[in-house]
Amino acid sequence: MREKSHFLYIVLFVSFLLFLPQAKAEDEVLSLKASVEKAAKSNPEILSAKRAYEAQAAKIWPAASLNDPVLELEYDKLYADRQLMGDPMKTYAISQEIPFPTKLYLRARIASKLAKAAYQNYKAKEREVISKVKSAYSELFIIYKSTELQKENKQVLEQFSSTATTRYSVGKVTQADALKAQVELAKIDNELIMLEQRRLTQQAQLNVLRNMDPKVEIGMPSPEGAIKFTRSLEEFYDLAKLNNPELRSYRHAIEKGEAAYGLSLNEFMPDFMVKFKQMYRKDGFEEDAWMGMVGVSVPIWFFQKQVFGVKEMKAELEMLEAEFRQKENAVLFDIRDSYARVEANKKLVELYETAFIPQADETVTAALRGYESEKTDFLTLLDSQRMLIEFKLEHYKAILNLRIALADLERSVGIDIEE
Q1: pLDDT tens sequence across 372-409
Q2: E-only strand ranges, 193-269
Q3: Does the structure show a pLDDT above 50 at 20?
Q4: What sign does the CA torsion over 258, 261, 263, 265 have?
Q5: pLDDT digits over 212-249, tens only?
Q6: Does residue 263 sit in helix, strand or coil?
Q7: Distance from first CA to last CA of the chain, Å, rounded?
Q8: Kind of pairing between the strands at 272-281 and 89-98
Q9: What stretch of H or E contains 149?
Q10: Which residues contact 176 (CB under 8 A, 6 or more apart)?
Q11: What is the pTM of this model?
Q12: Most buried of 71, 190, 260, 316 (most Cβ within 10 A)?
């Protein structure tokens, strides 16, 4: 019997060890770096943009290639001989169209520039999704911190309520004090419900960005590192002009437009065709019965075709140049807006940490001492506690706005900006 008990304990212990890694994995702390990496690898929008680039890149070599040659077989019974007594005459031929040499080069260049523009569109989508991940991650973290704060606030108010109820029972205060504390506790319960709803929504959004089931519980995110932000606005302008994927995509589009304009001018140049024929009779190919041909296209209808093609490509090129200038202005505006939000929220965070919250904390301490010594009323104590919590929540909000502004700035610049 003892041996069976020992065996059962061993089985239970081994089972515990087997399931321990899985439990540990579920309790892993979510990190920003891991979230960004997973989104970059798994997000469907990023993968779609990447496949679009690969599809466009696959068009480069076909654009630089000649059209397929044409093989021909001619069977001539009627004119084999005048008496219609001879064997049928067969002729084999092969022909190849050859565009004017610069046309192939320009077609390949157009395809190459389109592929490069598609690659930059893929990188722009990647920056967009990463920006969303960082914003969602920061908001989820702040929701958890706000929930913790409200729970701590609830414990403090429960102590206040207990004190007020005790003092009311001995006739030192009115029943209104105890009721006010209960009202504040009800407000906190309502706020906790709203925070839980926000947590589920933000968690689902972060899961979707990482191509995961929205219902998956991911736990509290780990704190982000300290913000290091020292570059000037002009430096960000310069970085964006060099690194912003959308601007780089437009530059490639303009280069594609220039190549297309050059190709339209080359349409005035002739194309060529070469052809070789070999006669075949019953006994085999006849050495002296062959024919070679060289043909040249003549663009005589240029006033109806090529001229308008040039006008079209020139107008398209000018359109692309105008769109690039508009996009560059929009990017610089976004940088200016994000930079201003970063600076403003950075100052707010410092103010809350160095002035507002410490002063509100001292006010609560003074109000609590005054209430205990019956020098201040319960409403003053509640107001001071409410102000402290509001300052802490506003502090979290400023941190969140700062993180979102940084994510927006990174997206506009096109690179990670924290040093």
Answers
A1: 777 888 888 888 999 999 999 999 999 999 999 999 99
A2: none
A3: no
A4: negative
A5: 999 999 888 988 877 777 889 999 999 999 999 999 99
A6: helix
A7: 67
A8: antiparallel
A9: helix 101-169
A10: 378
A11: 0.82
A12: 260
Residue keyed to tokens 């690194």: 243
Cβ atoms of 235 and 68 within 8 Å: the answer is no
Q: Is 50:71 a contact under the CB 8 Å cutoff?
A: no
d(CA 345, CA 398): 5
Q: In b/e form, how buried is each residue of 333-358, taking b as 16+ CB within 10 angstroms?
A: ebbeebbebbeebbebbeebeeebbe
Cα gap 406→265, rounded to integer Å = 47
Six token digits for residue 401: 């706005």
- What was the pLDDT predicted at 22? 39
d(CA 414, CA 419): 14
**Does the pLDDT of residue 28 top 60, yes or no?**
no
Q: What does the block give as tokens for 37?
A: 């990496």
Residue type (1 letter), 389: I
Cβ count near 266 (within 10 Å): 17
Q: Which residues pair with 92 in a beta bridge?
A: 73, 278
Are 47 and 210 in contact by the 8 Å Cβ rule? The answer is no
Q: Which residues contact 268 (CB under 8 A, 6 or more apart)?
A: 299, 302, 306
pLDDT score of 4: 45
Residue 95 is which amino acid? S
Three-state SS string over 223-281 comes to CCCCCCCCCCHHHHHHHHHHHCHHHHHHHHHHHHHHHHHHHHHHCCCCCEEEEEEEEEE
Q: Are 113 and 256 in contact (CB under 8 A)?
A: yes
What confidence score (pLDDT) does residue 320 get? 94
Which amino acid would we find at residue 12? L
Instruction: Examine the pLDDT at 135 and tell me if it is beyond 60.
Output: yes
Question: Does residue 266 contact residue 310 with C-beta atoms inside 8 Å?
Answer: no
**Residue 378 CA: distances (Å) to CA of 26, 327, 365:** 45, 58, 13
Q: Are strands 70-76 and 89-98 parallel, antiparallel or unpaired?
A: antiparallel
pLDDT digits (tens, 9 = 90+) for 290-342: 788 888 888 877 777 788 888 989 999 999 999 999 999 999 999 999 999 99
Q: How far apart are CA 163 and CA 177, in angstroms?
A: 10
pLDDT band with cut points at 50, 70 and 90 for residue 27: very low
311, with CB counted inside 10 A (0-12, 13-18, 19+), is exposed
Q: Tell me, which fold does domain 2-65+99-267+305-413 have in CATH?
A: Outer membrane efflux proteins (OEP) (1.20.1600)
